[in-house]
What does this fold into?
Amino acid sequence: MTEDDAGKSGIWTRLLFIILFALLYSIAEIVLFAVVVVQFLFVLFAGERNARVHTFARRLGAYLYDIIRYLAFTSDERPFPFADWPDPGTG
It folds into this structure.
């Protein structure tokens, strides 16, 4: 196999991962919408954000960002489940 053939093989493999991560992104969007609704209800009825929902939302946002970077070819690192779940820190 020549170097050119290996490169073409790699791009086809990436296409499969692009399809997978595009599907995961779509699922994560639905989860994000649910998180928004839950957090809104917490603020509406409790008067403050739920810390656990807030932490999960930050991590979910970082995960969506990781997927976008991979899909846009700005990163070659495959996001979760091929890497650790993102931890953007506190804030």
In short: Residues 26-91 form one domain. The mean pLDDT is 90. The two ends are 50 Å apart (CA to CA). The chain has one domain: 26-91.
